Each structure stands twice: as structure tokens, then as C-alpha cells.
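note to self: dont lose this again. the chain is below, predicted strucutre after it. 233 aa total, dont forget to put it in the shared folder this time
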Amino acid sequence: MIKSRAVLAGSLLTFAGIASADITVTPALVSDYDFRGISQTKEDPALQLGLNYSHESGFYAGLWGSNVDFGPGDPSVEVDVFAGFAGGDAEESVGYDLGAVYYTYPSAGSLKYLEAYAGISKGWFSGKLWYSPDFGGKSTAGHTSGLYTEANGAFPLPHDFSFVVHAGYSFGDYWDDIEYFDWSAGFSRTFNNFAVSLKYVDGSDLPDFGSKVFSTDSKVLLSISTTLPWKSE
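---
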């Protein structure tokens, strides 16, 4: 996701105060841009970049971008804006996360939509519910709502590895009578300043309306990312 970074960062710092702010940039290279079990790049690699602002109060906001290749209008870039508030303590009690993401595709004209989310976390477990009043930006055919619920687990392993699992379910008017599930399982590890994950991803078969422009084929997905500035030891 990309944005008017100077304007956004300036307004955010004015709102929250630079003394207690933390701004990071996270570049990532993935073997496929997977979104809930659905490839957004026709199973080709993607270069992604995130800009994140966080405040000690729990407020956060940022931008995220990636190359894409799918669907009507043939979008080539996705640019998202997000903001939210996270609090609680996932280790001692329960953590929570509330926010929203605005998805845009600059090269595809009016394709854009808003999605809100609410999540909780406790120890190794995290879960989240997403809701969009116009999922996929299908307003030209009438607003079509969509929901997505997910559960995630991260289990520590020897030698600083983690076993990570995910399961999700899409439902709501957008999906009509379709039952669409997705899941993944794999391993992750941090090597110095780089986070690496390797996982197997799969999803239910989509009907004709989706299978012509999206792929839900099973795949092995490799991701390498780092967060800047690097923290000094």
C-alpha cells in the first residue's frame, strides 16, 4: 500500500505527538500474494511495502502496497490505508484489536472498498472478524456485504522456530450460497533482522464467477520480510 506519506505522517504526528510515536517500514518479498487462500498475482511473486505508525496509547495507522494481477479493470497495484486501536495483554489476560482497512486499486478506476475488523488474542491464539458493507467494491451492482472470520495459532518450537496455522471462512451476501474455506500451516523463524516463513496454503474451489480471474489452487508460499529501522542489540 502506498500513500501521500508526508501529508499522512505529518497529520498523524500532530494528532498523537512525536515523542511517543514509532514509525517503521516493512518491505517483503513473497512467492505469491495470497489473500484468504486466493492468489492476487496469478501465483506470481509480489513485492510488498508497509509504512506503520504506532503510538503508546494503542492507536496505529499506516499504508501498505503490493503488485497485483487479477479481475475486471486489470489492476496492477493495490494501495491500502488502515487505522486501528490495539490494547490489552495477550499474555496476562486478553488482547484486543479494532480497526478498518480501505482497499484501493489506482490503475483500476473505481475499484475500492472498506472493511472493518475486531479481533482478540490470548497466548498462542488469535481470532478476528472482518465486515465490509460493499465487499470487493461491487457497488455498480448494488452494495454487497461480505464477512470473514479467522482463527490463528502460533506454537513455539526448538531453535526459535514456530509452527503457525490458520483457518478462515468467508460468508455474507457477496458469497451468496457459496461455502468458501481457506487454511494454511507452516513454519516461521527470525534470522537476525529478517523474518522468514514457509507454509502450505489451500482454499475451497471457487465457482465459475471467481475461478476465471482468481486462483485458489493449493501452493507452498515463501515469505521474507524485514522491519526498518533495525533495532540495535
